[in-house]
């Protein structure tokens, strides 16, 4: 179908094409951070052709070039993502096909279709990001889409932009109550849609279940949030904030792994002979795609759908693919039960690269001390008094990193100290293991909680001492502060957040930026708690407060249907009142259309007042002044935010003198309609 065969009133106008193109670009901008560059490049090329075609229509491709572009778009997405599975591949294909639809905007119906698909694209964004700022931005884009649909269906034109915006705002506000009701009452999935593993190829940054030189020092440069913590009482001091994660037993001399397959799970793994300084808190953990649940050393209680491993590590039943909230009680002072024989043996296994000078060092300590704990203190004293340095940029180590670190480079990060200390303890006959987790946390005074970042990643050791059980030892903290080089690090060794930011807070601009960051994170936390984290349990709690706690699946369905019926009734009553208000006005406008129809200028179906008036004025220039006066009265009264109650009477008076002739006066030459 050619453009000449389409009635002029059904053809999209250039401003409308520009509007829909810019709206699609605005809706697609956030996806640029998540899709491959090839997809963005294809999108931009097609948009550039569409915009250039507004000036040079010959640039619009015909049927065969358009088929070629379609094949290129499909192949681009297929090759980029190696198939169709996953949300990234599906989104890439969808946005590639959607942008090609811009080449086929021949009718206003095509504009309506693209506007509707942009609405779907807005929803797709939340598969990748659910931040409040993105939601606010997409809400603005959605409002612009509604405004465009109002313009396409009513046709008020750019001169009546205020009236168009008013109608779009009224429609949006009318949808809010029903949206809120559905948000609270709609039966919820056990996990949000974006956490259902739709894109297995997407990686998540964060802590690993293994450790080797350089692994944690790279993670420390990661500025992403790991989790938030709200304490029921006063939070403990910074040096007590050890957030326990994976426990590592086996090493090949370079890399540590859990190695828990050979260790039994029998017995009471979390039995404590004594515990004090109990503390309860709530953790909101960011997605990790792992089963680890971090808790203060040492957790006592186990959250729902989780268990405590024999190594005192909290583990969820399923990988954490969306933000998860859980409540834990920990004992800051404790004594564990004696370890089982299998774990004692695992804690004494040595790597194959033990050197003679490592043995001589341990033998010297053993000859100078009376018991195991004294030997532990001797090792810490060695790290403190010898020329050991803490640095985020240690020299590269060779085939035997433990020996080279202890006797040659003596420069390293927490993984170097934890690895060397545990190997030395095992060499001395003391069972030891490595623990990964986080140390510290930044206090957000705006939101009243702590923020633990990926940059707070840490590794420490645990040794088995007779009569005391497993005891935490942090060899990194033993380094003399005078030999700490924190260049490039986001935190200083063992320092509290207030010390870490001392230099930044000396500058007023830095303090202001930090306050904004805290406000922003508080907004993210509230958004997570009240919107994204609104779970089935939260829904039931709200129903309890509303005295609707007895409702379950069927009751919720009945309540939703009742609410929908009530909302529909309110809208119908409002529509009836609106019709009663505009009935005289519509009657006058209908007489205007009837008189034009008598002379062969009948209004077409789906033709708005503005388009109709333009067509009549082009066909009969002699009627253009009368048509303009009629529309000047009718449009503000029908679609304006504050209609004139006297408009119907004014329009009726004007129509008394409006008696168009079938043939135009000879002095005025008719203008043929636009092609």
From TrEMBL:
Protein's name according to its UniProt entry: Transglutaminase
Domain Transglutaminase-like, chain residue ranges per copy: 406-477
UniProt source species: Thiocapsa imhoffii
Stretches of the chain forming a coiled coil according to its record: none
The organism's place on the tree of life at top rank: Bacteria
One Pfam family cited in the UniProt record for this chain: TgpA_N
SMART domains recorded: TGc
InterPro entries: Bact_TGase-like, Papain-like_cys_pep_sf, TgpA-like_C, TgpA_N, Transglutaminase-like
Transmembrane stretches, start-end: 63-81, 110-128, 134-155, 554-576
Keywords of the record: Membrane, Transmembrane, Transmembrane helix
